[in-house]
From TrEMBL:
Domain called Histidine kinase: residue spans: 491-723
Domain of life of the organism encoding this protein: Bacteria
Domain Response regulatory: 769-886
Organism phylogeny: Bacteria, Bacillati, Bacillota, Bacilli, Bacillales
Organism: Paenibacillus taichungensis
Listed name of the protein: histidine kinase
Catalytic reaction equation(s): ATP + protein L-histidine = ADP + protein N-phospho-L-histidine
Keywords linked to the UniProt accession: ATP-binding, Cell membrane, Coiled coil, Kinase, Membrane, Nucleotide-binding, Phosphoprotein, Transferase, Transmembrane, Transmembrane helix, Two-component regulatory system
Sites bearing 4-aspartylphosphate, chain numbering: D819
């Protein structure tokens, strides 16, 4: 009888274990499928967010979540497919889902990324407007939801079938029990009632395994024999089964509470509170891995039943303390028999120290995201520890999702704040730009008044021919007027260039976007501000040049110029502009043109640049061509320039709007254009052609125009091969005499902006100490910002006296940037005083001035300056000069 019962119990125990394993498999399958579908939704969200982030910012960092999400999506898809191999319907749904995801990648995501990489922002916008990516993503999410719902239904069916098997087991149990009852009745005379009752209790308890409502009952044991051993085993089996079911229910309940949480502190509190409900620990803390002050730290985010008065560490570095070591090794750590003063667990009734400490890592995809620390009065059971290990992965996924959500919200808030600050700053710059425009208009009015005075002086000069005395008097008046005009223009140039310098420097600093915090629109705003400042600078230079020509103060510095270098310089300067306008730019030099000519290189470059700028501005389609050739006798005869000297013809031909014949004579007058609607449509001041005409005449040449309205124009400048106003340069030009002035500006620009500049050149500036001397706070702010961004140390002085005091107090100055026009002590006197100091006789000094007259450079160099630059400052040019001077010094 005992043997039969033992066999029966073993068979039933085996069957119950089999049922439990099936239950675990079904539960594990359901959890895995739910987790994998959630992960796929997250992968798709990461890909969509990363793609949009890259398209918006152009930053490759946003492609990292896109690429990693794409790889993880494929891995999760393969894992999910393995669960659906036996179900063709579900496999087909997954295949359709994968097809839609691949279609979204190939038709929407990858094309947008490719367009952004190519810088085709307009095509990106067009793609967004016509793209069906949003509907595709909605369909993908709907398919994932349908798949998850279908798999859940399958799981319910499996559970129903398992319930049927349980019913069959019960029926079998009743059958076996009937047989046992018959045998028991037969042997009733041989067994006492004390033996039959425990067996009945055991039978009822075993039947209770099929229903969770009966798991709370336990067998009462009154004997000490084999039946009592069976009762103990059955009680343990009931307790184990009850604990497993409760832990599984608790795990599912915790997962549901993580939904919709967007703050890491709230998520941590929920985790510790729910863990405490199940494990019944009296004290716990949670540390989440976060980056703070460029350090990788484990920061405490929640405490369960903590002491607010106790001074407990709130953060640990990786490997620091038990928390840091647990995070570093990524493994569970358990300690027993803690010291009494380790920590106190207290309530209103008293306090006591815990005796057991458990630390376990919380990981996601193999990376430690948090560490939980639990203190208890007794060690956790193996089942409780297994429960702890089982819930960490799901909680790790919740932590990762919450941290990513917090980062996105933080970046969005910061972006909005910076956008508001930039908008305020842009409005300020716009206000300053309007003030500069008003000043320029005032300058134009004053210039008109000066011209009127010049006309009056000319009339009086004609009248003065009647009397020698009046001629001398009016000549002196005219000379003073010209001197006042030049001085006025120089002073106005200084006043306009000083604020303009700050605008150009700060807008260029914004364009560089070193912090990568500006949006595409904000970078375009900075570019527009910088471009407007450059246009204003060009206008100031044109007015000064025109005034110098009118006053006869424009000096011609003739030198040998290499004609073969002109095409390359033109393509470097205007090539990008032509490509942006889709205009074909060509430069042709005839073989008969000599390699070198003798003329003013700067003025020749100014003539060519003015003509090409006009041609590109008024040509919206077609081509612009610069032709350099020898002028023939017929051309020179028509222009009344037929001499024994050889002339070059510089022809700029375009396919632009053209000029009517009756307007061709006025376009060379200052502030005149062919048509009023031309000025409104294309902009401009009308100074370029006027200056070009005057410069051509100063160089001994002439300019003519041929044009037809609607079919384009051809401007031709005839210049002598040998500029020789005093017959002092009749000797032939040699290679040693060729000036490289034509290439100076372009070579400096290329050297300063090329990405291939060796890093050692930039190291020359790093940690060097520069003294910046200027009385204008705007220039001090703008220049110091740019210099510090290059790794330089910057000291500031607002006049010459402060600069001398700074040099006496510090012997570590490597270079001085000196403004000229300052109160108290100007730049001339300050430079002279510095050169009198023995220790600073060779110190590099770069003079920065807004005065643009030619005599200013000579005076500054004679005062002792090493180099000279006019404002607004070209930062690329300035940095190249600083590197050169500091390199020579070192």
């Amino acid at each position: 009888m005992s043997t039969a019962l033992l066999i029966f119990v073993l068979v039933m125990h085996s069957r119950i274990n089999a049922l439990q394993e099936e239950t675990n498999v079904i539960t594990h399958q359901d959890r895995e499928i739910t987790n994998l579908t959630n992960q796929m939704e997250k992968n798709i969200l990461d890909m969509e967010t990363g793609q949009r982030g890259y398209v918006i910012t152009g930053n490759d960092k946003y492609l990292e979540p896109y690429l990693s999400g794409r790889i993880e999506l494929q891995n999760n898809y393969d894992k999910l497919l393995s669960w659906s191999t036996e179900d063709s319907t579900q496999a087909n749904r997954l295949a359709n889902l994968k097809t839609n995801v691949d279609h979204w990648i190939t038709s929407s995501s990858e094309p947008l990324i490719a367009l952004k990489r190519e810088g085709r922002d307009r095509d990106v916008l067009t793609q967004y407007q016509t793209d069906d990516g949003i509907n595709q993503m909605d369909q993908i999410r709907s398919q994932i939801s349908e798949y998850r719902t279908s798999m859940t239904a399958n799981t319910d069916q499996l559970i129903a079938r398992q319930a049927e098997r349980n019913t069959l087991l019960i029926e079998l149990l009743y059958l076996i029990w009937g047989l046992i009852a018959v045998v028991t009745i037969s042997a009733a005379w041989l067994m006492s009632r004390t033996i039959s009752q425990p067996i009945r209790n055991i039978t009822e308890s075993i039947l209770g395994l099929t229903s969770s409502r009966n798991l709370m009952s336990r067998i009462t044991i009154t004997s000490n024999d084999e039946i009592s051993d069976l009762g103990h085993v059955t009680n343990e089996l009931l307790s184990s089964q009850q604990e497993r079911i409760e832990l599984q229910e608790h795990t599912n309940n915790m997962m549901s509470k993580y939904q919709g949480i967007h703050e890491i502190e709230s998520l941590s509190d929920i985790f510790l509170s729910n863990m405490a409900d199940k494990l019944h620990y009296p004290y716990a803390a949670l540390y989440v891995r976060q980056e703070e002050n460029a350090q990788d730290l484990m920061i405490r985010t929640a405490v369960f039943a903590g002491d607010a008065q106790l001074n407990i560490r709130t953060s640990f570095q990786m490997g620091e303390g038990l928390v840091g070591q647990c995070a570093k090794e990524a493994k569970l750590m358990e300690f027993h028999q803690l010291p009494e003063n380790y920590v106190q667990v207290f309530s209103s009734l008293g306090s006591a120290p815990p005796h057991s400490l458990l630390l376990f890592p919380i990981c996601f995809l193999g990376e430690v995201l948090a560490v939980a620390e639990i203190a208890a009065f007794s060690p956790l059971t193996p089942i409780q520890i297994s429960y702890v290990e089982a819930i960490t992965e799901d909680f790790g996924a919740a932590i990762n999702s919450t941290l990513n959500t917090m980062k996105i919200e933080s970046l969005l808030t910061e972006s909005q704040r910076m956008n508001e600050e930039l908008q305020v700053y842009t409005e300020e710059l716009q206000t300053q730009s309007e003030e500069l425009q008003m000043q320029a208009e005032s300058l134009q009015v004053l210039n008109g008044k000066l011209e009127e005075r010049q006309l009056i002086a000319d009339e009086k000069t004609v009248e003065a021919q009647r009397a020698q005395a009046e001629l001398i008097t009016y000549a002196e008046i005219l000379e003073r007027s010209t001197r006042y005009k030049s001085e006025f223009l120089a002073n106005m140039s200084h006043e306009l260039r000083t604020p303009l310098n700050g605008i150009l420097l700060l807008s260029e600093f914004l364009k560089e976007n070193n912090s990568e915090s500006l949006t595409t629109d904000e970078l375009e705003y900075a570019q527009a501000i910088h471009s407007s400042g450059e246009d204003l600078l060009k206008l100031i230079n044109d007015i000064l040049d025109l005034s110098k020509v009118e006053a006869g103060k424009l000096n011609i510095e003739a030198e040998a110029v290499n004609v073969t270098e002109i095409p390359e310089s033109v393509m470097q300067y205007f090539g990008e502009i032509a490509r942006e306008k889709h205009v074909d730019l060509q430069v042709h030099v005839e073989d008969s043109v000599p390699d070198m000519i003798f003329t003013d290189a700067q003025r020749l470059r100014q003539i060519i640049n003015n003509l090409l700028s006009n041609a590109l501005k008024f040509t919206s389609q077609g081509s612009v061509q610069l032709e350099i050739r020898m002028a023939n006798e017929e051309e020179l005869l028509e222009t009344e320039r037929l001499t024994e000297e050889a002339f070059l013809a510089f022809s700029v031909q375009d396919t632009g709007i053209g000029i009517s014949e009756d307007k061709q004579s006025i376009i060379f007058e200052a502030f005149q254009q062919a048509e009023k609607n031309t000025e409104r449509h294309y902009g401009g001041t009308g100074l370029g052609l006027s200056i070009t005409k005057e410069l051509s005449m100063l160089l001994g040449g002439h300019i003519v125009v041929e044009s037809e309205l609607g079919r384009g124009s051809t401007f031709t400048v005839y210049l002598p091969v040998q500029y020789n106003p005093f017959s002092q340069h009749e000797q032939p030009i040699t290679k040693d005499q060729v000036s490289d002035d034509w290439e100076i500006s372009e070579s400096l620009r290329i050297a300063a902006t090329a990405e291939s500049v060796p890093s050692v050149e930039y190291d020359i500036l790093k940690d060097k100490h520069v003294l910046l001397v200027d009385d204008d706070d705007r220039n001090l702010f703008a220049l110091s910002k740019v210099l510090k961004a290059q790794g330089l140390k910057v000291s500031i002085a607002k006049n010459g006296e402060q600069a001398l005091l700074e040099l006496k107090q510090s012997s570590a100055i490597d270079l001085i940037l000196m403004d000229i026009m300052m109160p108290v002590m100007d730049g001339y006197e300050a430079i002279q005083q510095i050169r009198l100091m023995e220790e600073y006789q060779n110190l590099p000094i770069i003079a920065l001035t807004a005065r643009a007259m030619s005599e200013d450079r000579k005076r500054i160099i004679n005062a002792g300056a090493t180099e000279y630059m006019s404002k607004p400052i070209n930062m690329e040019h300035l940095l190249v000069i600083m590197r050169m001077l500091l390199s020579n010094k070192s």
